[in-house]
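Re: the request from the purification team.
They wanted to know what the chain is likely to look like in 3D before they choose a buffer screen. I agreed to run a prediction and write the result into the notebook, where they can find it.
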Amino acid sequence: MNSLNKEQIMELLPHREPMLLINELINIKKLISATAIVDVKKDSFFVKGHFPGEPVMPGVLIVEAFGQAAAALTAAGLDKSTYENKLVFLMTIEKARFRNPVIPNCKLELNIEAIRSHGRVWKYKGVAMVDGKKMADAQWSATIVDRKK
């Protein structure tokens, strides 16, 4: 498996519209790296209020998309019994830098890499790009926890 479409991502993640931000996961290297595609559209849910007349994708949503991409990469590489009935939660966000505003009507590419894992805790890094231009970068940690019944 070298790529996942949105339907396949929804089989791995609990996120749904409007909070499922990633549309595709490509260039997957099992449990190592991948590129997530986010279609930032002029009718995206955040555009109307952030900011009227000058829409920008909020930085916190870029970080959320990083997290979703990392969760999908990890779940896709694990045995289903390992992530079934589990959730992935962000634990830390480090070194987040927002270098250029992400304006609607673009494809945001999130190049992510798993740096290390220890038990249920994973650490990742990522770079967000639009048309070859760096928009943001960050490092973050996440943990896999049991879903409450």
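For the purification team: The helical segments are 6-12, 59-77, 80-83.
Please add any questions underneath this entry.
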